[in-house]
Specification:
Gyrase A, domain 2, Alpha-Beta Plaits, Elongation Factor Tu (Ef-tu), domain 3, 3 domains, six-stranded mixed sheet, six-stranded antiparallel beta barrel, about 15% helix, globular
């Protein structure tokens, strides 16, 4: 794995017996104690995740809001400074180039957080849509990202960074100083639990990580638990559940497309040929990415995008794209390796006990 990028926390992971794997061009921890233990600890207490492989861009200048609104799907007219919003970067055909979060730092200043595998292509696509008068910078290499997730995370944050954090609302953020350098603390996450994401100088990442790891209620968790946690909530993964072959409407996000701006791909963003549906499967045998989805009659209607055993629910869960005309049904069959698995369409989230939106103030 010598040709992979490494995060500022790479040596810590190895010193603490993490199992390291290649992911999106990076060497990343997939587990420490084990996926099941880390998943359950995050649901009960809190875990920390190294997410330094993600990308961050900074946009600044007069007219930044209107220019950015033509590049991404987020409604920036209703996004106030101190708030952030999830949305998409589309191609001209309405296909999803990436999903991303836009942070409004000031009236004419934004930060964009993108998937690590898409940093280079996203930056080029967005830059091409912006006027040259704006300052658009890739700050990914200098920026570290650490996530603290779990129902006890506010208490842990208060012990690590003393202050009253209870007033910080969901999808809001606060800019503070940490070890003499700027840090952004955002109440967001990818697990469905109460949590925070920290954006800070790469050189300060190990200090914050070790402070958080020293708390008795915290365990480090790898990409394995992050994946099972996000799937239980029904959050999509770019490259599996989201791709250039599908629109936001097909992925179930038509309701988020409220921007009045003429953003790239807008004429096709509401096109629905297939629909991403949630499926439950009894037992421990899991559906896997690209397994064929059929009607009970045997007619092939789609494919699984994500599937896993749900540690919290005790059975398999999956997301699958199926033909739009079949999406209204309730009974399906998944052709898994060497077997067929009866599946039923359900509602998202699969796990409904998450604390992400918990009111703290």
């Amino acid at each position: 794995m010598d040709d992979l990028f490494v995060t500022p926390l790479n040596a810590w992971h190895k010193a603490h017996n993490a199992k390291m794997v290649p992911f999106a061009g990076w060497e990343m921890p997939v587990q420490y104690l084990g996926i099941l233990a880390e998943h359950q600890h995050c649901r009960a207490k809190a875990c920390i995740f190294d997410i330094c492989h993600m990308g961050e861009f900074r946009l600044k200048g007069a007219g930044a809001k209107d220019a950015l609104a033509r590049a991404v799907t987020q409604n920036l007219d209703t996004l106030a400074p101190g708030k952030c919003r999830y949305g998409f970067l589309l191609n001209a055909q309405g296909g999803i180039l990436d999903d991303l979060i836009v942070y409004r730092l000031d009236e004419d200043e934004f930060m964009l957080v993108v998937n690590g595998v898409c940093i280079t292509s996203d930056f080029a696509a967005i830059k091409d849509r912006l006027p040259g008068s704006l300052t658009f910078t890739d700050i990914s290499e200098a920026t570290a990202k650490i996530d603290l997730q779990g129902p006890l995370s506010c208490d842990i944050l208060g012990r690590t960074l003393p202050g009253d954090w209870s007033g910080l609302g969901y999808f809001s953020f606060r800019k503070i100083s940490f070890e003499g350098a700027p840090m952004l603390v955002s109440r967001t996450g990818y697990t469905g639990e109460l949590g925070y994401e920290f954006y800070l100088s790469a050189g300060k990442a190990l200090i914050l990580w070790e402070k958080l790891a020293a708390d008795a209620d915290v365990l480090p968790a790898g990409l394995g638990a992050r994946d099972t946690l996000r799937l239980e909530i029904g959050y999509p993964l770019y490259g599996q559940d989201l791709d250039t072959d599908h629109t936001p409407a097909e992925a179930g996000y038509a309701g988020m497309l409220t921007s009045q701006a003429d953003f790239t791909g807008k004429p096709h963003a509401f096109t629905v040929r297939e629909s991403l549906i949630p499926l439950t499967i009894e037992g421990r045998r899991s559906a896997r990415h690209n397994d064929i989805v059929c009607l009970p009659s045997g007619q092939e209607v789609g494919r699984v995008t994500s599937g896993s055993f749900s540690p919290t629910l005790g059975h398999c869960i999956a997301l699958a794209y199926v033909q739009a005309e079949a999406a209204g049904g309730t009974d399906f069959m998944v052709k898994a390796a060497k077997t067929e698995l009866p599946a039923k369409k359900t509602d998202l989230p699969f796990y409904k006990g998450g604390s992400a939106r918990k009111k703290l103030a």
